[in-house]
Specification:
Layout: H1 3-13, H2 18-24, H3 33-44, H4 52-59, H5 66-77, H6 79-84, E1 105-106, E2 109-110, E3 113-115, E4 118-119, H7 124-132
Helix pairs in contact: 2-3
Amino acid sequence: MTPGTYLQLRRKAAGLSIEDVAGAVRTVPHLAEIDRAAFIRLIESDIAAPVWDVIEALSGAFALDRDVVDLLRLAQDFPRHFKAIDLSLPQICKQCGCSDCDPCIVNGRSCAWSAPDLCNACSPSLQEAAHVA
């Protein structure tokens, strides 16, 4: 998973559009909302790197794990070094982007893993059970 994909999943899991986030974040120097939205699209497409101050601004709009972003950037930018120093990526849900450090909260409880890349909050069987209840 790339840093941009992770950020996109976390934004969508929060139920926010790019325009919602662009309206919620502030930049220094000031950028117009349309420019902030364009920049967020570049980040989510992995064209622009999510640097520390951008991650800080985004974390004010939706839940994300800064350490996960950093590890994904390291793995993307320095794949051989990442493996050489024996770092591993955390488990990340392919649907919502949650991790052990930033789990979904379902009925007041943290989600768990139903598969290596799928939390039980996003698991189709759990979703079907919620609709039946």
